[in-house]
Amino acid sequence: MSTKSEDQPIICGAKTRSGALCQNPPELGRRRCRIHGGAKGSGAPQGNKNAWKHGFYSAEAIARRRDARRLVKESRELMSMMNQISGISA
């Protein structure tokens, strides 16, 4: 690939569907043309949003399940104490 300087190529050089190299000039400061990913805002979003599937193991979901288990445990303990008290007073 011939270049103007070592940093900025003259052509995009991406492989097209026909198998030839793209002859478009790259975007300023990029190595590819706007069609092949040189445009501003191209690429994957920040934060790996593409990998998000269901959120079952997210910190928020884990904390929510932990709180729910704690509430169930406390409720069972409270019901047990109430049953003991009602058994004593009966």
UniProtKB/TrEMBL annotation:
It comes from the Bacteria. InterPro entries: Putative_zinc-bd. NCBIfam families: HGG_STG. This is Uncharacterized protein. It comes from Desulfococcus multivorans DSM 2059. The lineage of its organism: Bacteria, Pseudomonadati, Thermodesulfobacteriota, Desulfobacteria, Desulfobacterales.
